[in-house]
Amino acid sequence: MMGEQVILDLLKAIALFFLNPVWLIAIVVAVGLGYFRVKRERRSFLVRLHPGLTEMKRLLAESWLPALILSVLLSGIGLTVDIGWIVLFSAAAILAMISFYYQATSPIYFAAIAFFGLYALQQFVPDFAFRGWTVADLDLFGDLALTVPVIAGLFLIAEGVLIRRHIARYASPFLTNTNRGLRAAAFKAKRLWLLPIVFLVPGDFMLAFTPYWPQLTLGATTFSFLPVPIIIGFSQIARASFPDVLFPKIGQAVITIGAIVVVIGAFAWWMPILGWAALLVGVIGRVMLSIIVAVRERKGGFAAAPKPTGVIIAGILPESPGDKLGLLPGECIRTVNGIQVSNEKELYDAIQVNAAHCRLQVIGRDGEVRLMQQVLYRHDHHRLGLLVVR
Protein backbone atom coordinates (compact mmCIF):
# COMPACT_ATOMS: atom_id res chain seq x y z
CA MET A 1 0.00 0.00 0.00
CA MET A 2 2.80 2.41 0.86
CA GLY A 3 4.44 1.74 -2.50
CA GLU A 4 1.21 2.56 -4.28
CA GLN A 5 0.86 5.75 -2.22
CA VAL A 6 4.37 6.84 -3.13
CA ILE A 7 3.56 6.33 -6.83
CA LEU A 8 0.34 8.33 -6.42
CA ASP A 9 2.25 11.12 -4.69
CA LEU A 10 4.73 11.21 -7.55
CA LEU A 11 1.90 11.42 -10.08
CA LYS A 12 0.30 14.23 -8.06
CA ALA A 13 3.57 16.18 -8.09
CA ILE A 14 3.86 15.71 -11.85
CA ALA A 15 0.26 16.86 -12.27
CA LEU A 16 0.97 19.96 -10.15
CA PHE A 17 3.87 20.79 -12.44
CA PHE A 18 1.90 20.41 -15.68
CA LEU A 19 -1.13 22.26 -14.27
CA ASN A 20 1.09 25.18 -13.31
CA PRO A 21 -0.12 28.25 -15.27
CA VAL A 22 3.48 29.01 -16.32
CA TRP A 23 3.67 25.68 -18.14
CA LEU A 24 0.24 25.99 -19.76
CA ILE A 25 0.79 29.58 -20.90
CA ALA A 26 4.26 28.70 -22.22
CA ILE A 27 2.76 26.04 -24.52
CA VAL A 28 0.16 28.45 -25.90
CA VAL A 29 2.72 31.22 -26.37
CA ALA A 30 5.20 28.88 -28.08
CA VAL A 31 2.52 27.86 -30.57
CA GLY A 32 1.79 31.54 -31.17
CA LEU A 33 5.47 32.25 -31.79
CA GLY A 34 5.57 29.58 -34.48
CA TYR A 35 2.36 30.86 -36.08
CA PHE A 36 3.58 34.45 -36.40
CA ARG A 37 7.02 33.33 -37.58
CA VAL A 38 5.51 31.24 -40.39
CA LYS A 39 3.29 34.17 -41.44
CA ARG A 40 6.32 36.48 -41.55
CA GLU A 41 8.41 34.04 -43.59
CA ARG A 42 5.62 33.36 -46.08
CA ARG A 43 5.02 37.08 -46.46
CA SER A 44 8.66 37.51 -47.50
CA PHE A 45 9.39 34.25 -49.36
CA LEU A 46 6.01 32.52 -49.94
CA VAL A 47 7.37 29.53 -47.99
CA ARG A 48 8.20 28.86 -44.36
CA LEU A 49 11.65 27.79 -43.19
CA HIS A 50 10.65 25.49 -40.30
CA PRO A 51 7.26 23.94 -39.38
CA GLY A 52 4.93 26.09 -37.32
CA LEU A 53 5.15 23.87 -34.23
CA THR A 54 8.96 24.03 -34.07
CA GLU A 55 8.97 26.52 -31.17
CA MET A 56 6.55 24.39 -29.19
CA LYS A 57 8.52 21.18 -29.83
CA ARG A 58 11.81 22.86 -28.85
CA LEU A 59 10.26 24.39 -25.71
CA LEU A 60 11.53 21.55 -23.53
CA ALA A 61 13.67 19.50 -25.93
CA GLU A 62 16.62 21.93 -25.77
CA SER A 63 16.36 22.84 -22.09
CA TRP A 64 15.76 19.57 -20.20
CA LEU A 65 19.47 18.82 -19.80
CA PRO A 66 20.39 22.28 -18.38
CA ALA A 67 17.32 21.95 -16.12
CA LEU A 68 18.50 18.57 -14.84
CA ILE A 69 22.01 19.87 -14.18
CA LEU A 70 20.67 22.94 -12.36
CA SER A 71 18.25 20.87 -10.26
CA VAL A 72 21.00 18.47 -9.13
CA LEU A 73 23.38 21.38 -8.48
CA LEU A 74 20.90 23.47 -6.48
CA SER A 75 19.79 20.52 -4.35
CA GLY A 76 23.31 19.15 -4.01
CA ILE A 77 24.81 22.32 -2.55
CA GLY A 78 21.70 23.03 -0.50
CA LEU A 79 20.56 26.35 -2.00
CA THR A 80 17.07 26.96 -0.64
CA VAL A 81 14.51 29.55 -1.71
CA ASP A 82 11.33 30.86 -0.16
CA ILE A 83 7.98 29.81 -1.61
CA GLY A 84 6.95 33.48 -1.77
CA TRP A 85 9.94 34.24 -4.00
CA ILE A 86 8.96 31.38 -6.34
CA VAL A 87 5.39 32.68 -6.61
CA LEU A 88 6.50 36.24 -7.44
CA PHE A 89 9.12 34.88 -9.86
CA SER A 90 6.43 32.86 -11.68
CA ALA A 91 4.00 35.81 -11.73
CA ALA A 92 6.63 38.03 -13.34
CA ALA A 93 7.36 35.31 -15.92
CA ILE A 94 3.66 35.00 -16.82
CA LEU A 95 3.33 38.77 -17.34
CA ALA A 96 6.44 38.80 -19.54
CA MET A 97 5.19 35.86 -21.63
CA ILE A 98 1.76 37.28 -22.37
CA SER A 99 3.31 40.65 -23.27
CA PHE A 100 5.30 38.95 -26.08
CA TYR A 101 8.09 41.43 -25.25
CA TYR A 102 10.82 38.82 -24.99
CA GLN A 103 13.70 41.24 -24.48
CA ALA A 104 12.38 41.27 -20.90
CA THR A 105 12.20 37.52 -20.31
CA SER A 106 15.67 36.89 -18.96
CA PRO A 107 15.38 35.08 -15.59
CA ILE A 108 17.63 37.69 -13.93
CA TYR A 109 14.75 40.16 -14.26
CA PHE A 110 12.23 37.78 -12.68
CA ALA A 111 14.65 36.94 -9.85
CA ALA A 112 15.29 40.60 -9.05
CA ILE A 113 11.59 41.56 -9.28
CA ALA A 114 10.66 38.72 -6.92
CA PHE A 115 13.43 39.53 -4.42
CA PHE A 116 12.81 43.26 -4.27
CA GLY A 117 9.07 42.61 -4.38
CA LEU A 118 9.40 40.67 -1.12
CA TYR A 119 11.34 43.60 0.33
CA ALA A 120 8.53 45.97 -0.72
CA LEU A 121 5.97 43.72 0.96
CA GLN A 122 7.99 43.80 4.18
CA GLN A 123 8.13 47.58 4.07
CA PHE A 124 4.54 48.39 3.10
CA VAL A 125 2.51 45.31 4.14
CA PRO A 126 4.52 43.80 7.02
CA ASP A 127 1.54 41.82 8.34
CA PHE A 128 0.80 40.06 5.04
CA ALA A 129 0.29 36.31 5.47
CA PHE A 130 -1.14 33.48 3.38
CA ARG A 131 -1.78 29.91 4.57
CA GLY A 132 0.91 30.02 7.18
CA TRP A 133 3.42 31.94 5.07
CA THR A 134 4.24 35.38 6.46
CA VAL A 135 6.38 38.03 4.84
CA ALA A 136 7.63 39.17 8.26
CA ASP A 137 9.48 35.87 8.72
CA LEU A 138 11.73 36.48 5.71
CA ASP A 139 15.34 37.45 6.31
CA LEU A 140 16.38 39.25 3.14
CA PHE A 141 19.76 39.99 4.68
CA GLY A 142 20.26 36.36 5.58
CA ASP A 143 20.14 33.15 3.53
CA LEU A 144 18.02 34.65 0.74
CA ALA A 145 20.65 37.33 0.11
CA LEU A 146 23.03 34.50 -0.77
CA THR A 147 20.86 31.91 -2.46
CA VAL A 148 18.73 34.12 -4.72
CA PRO A 149 21.66 35.89 -6.46
CA VAL A 150 23.58 32.64 -6.89
CA ILE A 151 20.52 30.91 -8.37
CA ALA A 152 19.83 33.92 -10.60
CA GLY A 153 23.43 33.83 -11.82
CA LEU A 154 23.16 30.12 -12.61
CA PHE A 155 19.96 30.80 -14.54
CA LEU A 156 21.82 33.46 -16.53
CA ILE A 157 24.55 30.94 -17.36
CA ALA A 158 21.87 28.48 -18.53
CA GLU A 159 20.30 31.25 -20.64
CA GLY A 160 23.65 32.01 -22.25
CA VAL A 161 24.27 28.34 -23.04
CA LEU A 162 20.85 28.01 -24.70
CA ILE A 163 21.39 31.18 -26.75
CA ARG A 164 24.87 30.16 -27.85
CA ARG A 165 23.90 26.61 -28.84
CA HIS A 166 20.42 26.92 -30.36
CA ILE A 167 19.39 30.41 -31.44
CA ALA A 168 21.38 30.76 -34.69
CA ARG A 169 20.02 27.47 -36.06
CA TYR A 170 16.40 28.67 -35.90
CA ALA A 171 16.84 32.37 -36.74
CA SER A 172 14.03 33.40 -39.06
CA PRO A 173 14.90 35.45 -42.19
CA PHE A 174 12.61 38.17 -43.49
CA LEU A 175 12.85 40.92 -46.09
CA THR A 176 12.87 44.59 -45.20
CA ASN A 177 13.62 47.86 -46.95
CA THR A 178 17.02 49.52 -46.77
CA ASN A 179 17.55 53.29 -46.59
CA ARG A 180 17.98 53.28 -50.37
CA GLY A 181 14.64 51.60 -50.94
CA LEU A 182 16.14 48.22 -51.80
CA ARG A 183 15.13 44.90 -50.24
CA ALA A 184 17.56 43.22 -47.87
CA ALA A 185 17.35 40.31 -45.46
CA ALA A 186 17.34 40.50 -41.68
CA PHE A 187 17.07 37.64 -39.19
CA LYS A 188 14.71 37.51 -36.23
CA ALA A 189 15.17 35.16 -33.31
CA LYS A 190 12.29 34.90 -30.86
CA ARG A 191 12.40 31.83 -28.66
CA LEU A 192 11.06 30.49 -25.40
CA TRP A 193 12.48 27.70 -23.25
CA LEU A 194 10.95 25.94 -20.27
CA LEU A 195 13.22 24.48 -17.59
CA PRO A 196 11.62 22.09 -15.05
CA ILE A 197 13.72 23.01 -12.01
CA VAL A 198 13.48 21.19 -8.66
CA PHE A 199 13.96 23.70 -5.82
CA LEU A 200 14.73 23.00 -2.18
CA VAL A 201 12.10 24.89 -0.14
CA PRO A 202 12.09 25.19 3.67
CA GLY A 203 8.96 23.88 5.35
CA ASP A 204 6.46 21.11 4.61
CA PHE A 205 4.75 22.78 1.65
CA MET A 206 4.46 19.60 -0.43
CA LEU A 207 3.04 17.53 2.44
CA ALA A 208 -0.32 19.25 2.00
CA PHE A 209 -0.57 17.68 -1.48
CA THR A 210 1.61 14.55 -1.33
CA PRO A 211 2.18 13.07 2.16
CA TYR A 212 4.94 10.73 0.97
CA TRP A 213 6.83 13.31 -1.10
CA PRO A 214 10.61 13.14 -0.37
CA GLN A 215 11.85 15.60 2.26
CA LEU A 216 15.05 16.47 4.06
CA THR A 217 15.43 17.30 7.71
CA LEU A 218 18.43 19.25 9.02
CA GLY A 219 18.18 19.92 12.73
CA ALA A 220 14.73 21.34 13.39
CA THR A 221 14.17 22.47 9.78
CA THR A 222 12.33 20.44 7.16
CA PHE A 223 12.91 20.95 3.43
CA SER A 224 10.67 19.91 0.52
CA PHE A 225 11.62 19.30 -3.11
CA LEU A 226 9.41 21.53 -5.25
CA PRO A 227 9.30 21.14 -9.09
CA VAL A 228 8.78 24.52 -10.77
CA PRO A 229 8.66 25.43 -14.49
CA ILE A 230 11.15 28.25 -15.13
CA ILE A 231 10.84 30.34 -18.28
CA ILE A 232 13.73 31.76 -20.31
CA GLY A 233 12.95 33.89 -23.36
CA PHE A 234 15.04 35.60 -26.01
CA SER A 235 14.33 38.09 -28.78
CA GLN A 236 16.77 39.86 -31.09
CA ILE A 237 16.98 40.96 -34.72
CA ALA A 238 20.28 40.52 -36.55
CA ARG A 239 20.77 42.63 -39.63
CA ALA A 240 24.31 44.03 -39.53
CA SER A 241 25.62 40.60 -38.48
CA PHE A 242 24.78 37.06 -39.47
CA PRO A 243 22.93 34.89 -36.91
CA ASP A 244 25.70 32.30 -36.60
CA VAL A 245 28.15 35.11 -35.78
CA LEU A 246 26.04 37.38 -33.56
CA PHE A 247 24.02 35.02 -31.38
CA PRO A 248 26.88 32.85 -30.07
CA LYS A 249 28.63 36.08 -29.01
CA ILE A 250 25.51 37.21 -27.18
CA GLY A 251 25.27 33.82 -25.49
CA GLN A 252 28.88 34.00 -24.35
CA ALA A 253 28.33 37.53 -22.98
CA VAL A 254 25.28 36.35 -21.01
CA ILE A 255 27.32 33.45 -19.59
CA THR A 256 29.99 35.93 -18.46
CA ILE A 257 27.41 38.16 -16.76
CA GLY A 258 25.95 35.10 -15.03
CA ALA A 259 29.37 34.03 -13.78
CA ILE A 260 30.00 37.51 -12.36
CA VAL A 261 26.62 37.44 -10.59
CA VAL A 262 27.40 34.02 -9.07
CA VAL A 263 30.82 35.18 -7.81
CA ILE A 264 29.52 38.43 -6.29
CA GLY A 265 26.51 36.61 -4.84
CA ALA A 266 28.76 33.99 -3.22
CA PHE A 267 30.48 36.75 -1.22
CA ALA A 268 27.10 37.50 0.38
CA TRP A 269 28.00 34.64 2.74
CA TRP A 270 30.22 37.16 4.53
CA MET A 271 28.55 40.43 3.48
CA PRO A 272 24.80 40.00 2.69
CA ILE A 273 24.49 43.38 0.97
CA LEU A 274 26.67 41.98 -1.82
CA GLY A 275 23.78 39.65 -2.69
CA TRP A 276 21.63 42.70 -3.38
CA ALA A 277 24.46 44.21 -5.40
CA ALA A 278 24.85 40.98 -7.42
CA LEU A 279 21.20 41.12 -8.52
CA LEU A 280 21.56 44.75 -9.58
CA VAL A 281 24.77 43.96 -11.47
CA GLY A 282 22.99 41.13 -13.29
CA VAL A 283 20.00 43.29 -14.23
CA ILE A 284 22.11 46.24 -15.38
CA GLY A 285 24.54 44.00 -17.27
CA ARG A 286 21.74 42.16 -19.10
CA VAL A 287 19.94 45.42 -19.98
CA MET A 288 23.13 47.05 -21.25
CA LEU A 289 23.97 44.01 -23.37
CA SER A 290 20.52 44.13 -25.03
CA ILE A 291 20.80 47.86 -25.67
CA ILE A 292 24.33 47.70 -27.08
CA VAL A 293 23.49 44.83 -29.45
CA ALA A 294 20.25 46.48 -30.62
CA VAL A 295 21.95 49.83 -31.31
CA ARG A 296 24.82 48.22 -33.22
CA GLU A 297 22.49 46.13 -35.35
CA ARG A 298 20.28 49.12 -36.20
CA LYS A 299 23.15 51.47 -37.04
CA GLY A 300 25.12 48.98 -39.10
CA GLY A 301 24.32 48.20 -42.72
CA PHE A 302 22.60 45.01 -43.82
CA ALA A 303 24.88 41.98 -43.90
CA ALA A 304 22.60 40.28 -46.44
CA ALA A 305 22.11 43.20 -48.82
CA PRO A 306 21.55 42.91 -52.59
CA LYS A 307 24.52 43.17 -54.97
CA PRO A 308 24.68 44.38 -58.59
CA THR A 309 25.52 40.89 -59.83
CA GLY A 310 24.41 37.65 -58.24
CA VAL A 311 21.62 36.47 -55.93
CA ILE A 312 21.96 36.84 -52.14
CA ILE A 313 20.90 33.88 -50.00
CA ALA A 314 18.59 34.76 -47.09
CA GLY A 315 17.89 31.24 -45.84
CA ILE A 316 18.16 27.56 -46.68
CA LEU A 317 15.43 24.99 -46.16
CA PRO A 318 16.59 22.08 -43.95
CA GLU A 319 17.56 18.87 -45.81
CA SER A 320 17.36 20.65 -49.18
CA PRO A 321 20.07 20.53 -51.88
CA GLY A 322 21.23 23.96 -50.77
CA ASP A 323 21.57 22.70 -47.21
CA LYS A 324 23.59 19.67 -48.40
CA LEU A 325 25.85 21.99 -50.38
CA GLY A 326 26.67 23.84 -47.16
CA LEU A 327 25.43 27.21 -48.41
CA LEU A 328 25.08 29.97 -45.81
CA PRO A 329 22.83 33.04 -45.49
CA GLY A 330 24.56 36.08 -46.92
CA GLU A 331 26.48 34.20 -49.59
CA CYS A 332 26.06 35.31 -53.21
CA ILE A 333 25.32 32.95 -56.09
CA ARG A 334 26.96 34.43 -59.18
CA THR A 335 26.37 31.71 -61.79
CA VAL A 336 24.23 28.57 -62.05
CA ASN A 337 25.18 25.94 -64.63
CA GLY A 338 27.45 28.51 -66.26
CA ILE A 339 24.69 31.12 -66.57
CA GLN A 340 25.07 34.43 -64.75
CA VAL A 341 22.08 35.23 -62.51
CA SER A 342 20.95 38.45 -60.84
CA ASN A 343 17.45 37.70 -59.54
CA GLU A 344 15.21 34.87 -58.37
CA LYS A 345 13.65 34.17 -61.79
CA GLU A 346 17.03 33.91 -63.49
CA LEU A 347 18.18 31.59 -60.70
CA TYR A 348 15.18 29.32 -61.20
CA ASP A 349 15.52 29.30 -64.99
CA ALA A 350 19.26 28.49 -64.77
CA ILE A 351 18.59 25.55 -62.44
CA GLN A 352 16.19 24.07 -65.01
CA VAL A 353 18.93 24.02 -67.65
CA ASN A 354 20.26 20.85 -66.08
CA ALA A 355 17.57 19.13 -64.04
CA ALA A 356 19.90 16.35 -62.87
CA HIS A 357 23.05 18.22 -61.93
CA CYS A 358 23.59 21.74 -60.63
CA ARG A 359 26.87 23.67 -60.68
CA LEU A 360 27.17 26.92 -58.73
CA GLN A 361 29.72 29.69 -58.53
CA VAL A 362 29.37 31.18 -55.06
CA ILE A 363 30.97 34.22 -53.45
CA GLY A 364 31.40 33.51 -49.75
CA ARG A 365 31.00 35.99 -46.94
CA ASP A 366 34.77 36.47 -46.98
CA GLY A 367 34.70 37.42 -50.66
CA GLU A 368 36.32 34.18 -51.81
CA VAL A 369 34.89 32.53 -54.92
CA ARG A 370 34.27 28.79 -54.87
CA LEU A 371 32.66 26.27 -57.20
CA MET A 372 30.03 23.86 -55.86
CA GLN A 373 27.97 21.12 -57.46
CA GLN A 374 25.10 18.92 -56.38
CA VAL A 375 23.19 16.04 -57.96
CA LEU A 376 19.47 16.81 -58.03
CA TYR A 377 16.79 14.18 -57.50
CA ARG A 378 13.15 14.23 -58.46
CA HIS A 379 11.95 14.87 -54.91
CA ASP A 380 14.39 17.76 -54.31
CA HIS A 381 13.21 21.34 -54.01
CA HIS A 382 12.96 22.99 -57.45
CA ARG A 383 14.90 26.07 -56.24
CA LEU A 384 17.51 24.13 -54.27
CA GLY A 385 15.61 25.05 -51.12
CA LEU A 386 16.98 28.59 -51.20
CA LEU A 387 15.24 31.68 -49.84
CA VAL A 388 16.79 34.65 -51.63
CA VAL A 389 16.74 38.42 -51.44
CA ARG A 390 14.46 39.69 -54.18
Automatic annotation (TrEMBL):
Annotated transmembrane regions: 14-38, 59-77, 83-101, 108-125, 145-163, 192-212, 218-238, 250-270, 276-295
Biological process according to GO: cell division
Domain PDZ: from-to ranges: 285-366
SUPFAM superfamilies assigned to the protein according to its UniProt record, in alphabetical order: PDZ domain-like
Family annotation (SMART domains): PDZ
Keywords, comma-separated and alphabetical: Cell cycle, Cell division, Membrane, Transmembrane, Transmembrane helix
Keyword Cell cycle attributed: yes
Gene3D superfamilies: 2.30.42.10
Pfam annotation, one family: PDZ_6
Range of residues in the leader sequence: none
The organism's place on the tree of life at top rank: Bacteria
Protein name: Cell division topological determinant MinJ
